[in-house]
Amino acid sequence: MTKEKINEYAVRISQSSRGELVAISCEIAAEYMQDAKTALKENNKEMFSFYIKKSMDFTDDLSSSLDMKYPVASQLLSLYMYVKRILIHANAAYTDEN
Length: 98
What we know:
The protein is mostly helical. It has helices at 3-14, 18-41, 45-64, 71-93. The longest helix is centred in the first third of the chain and has 24 residues, at 18-41. The mean pLDDT is 90.
């Protein structure tokens, strides 16, 4: 992710509500996944792993911020856990395939 993009996210985060923070976190995680895919195509293992780990960090943050008193939270947790398993597999296998 470029410094310009990081600054753009910082501005959005500073002006967002709690719900919007969730959406922005998802966007950032997805952007890091795309960066990992680019690094994979460039055969850059170090950056691939870096971007996968950054994406996992955001996925972990999303998981830990869930309020489990709401029914949708358990469904979101399952989704976040699935995404994390895929990221772990990709990092271990150095591939973007499931």
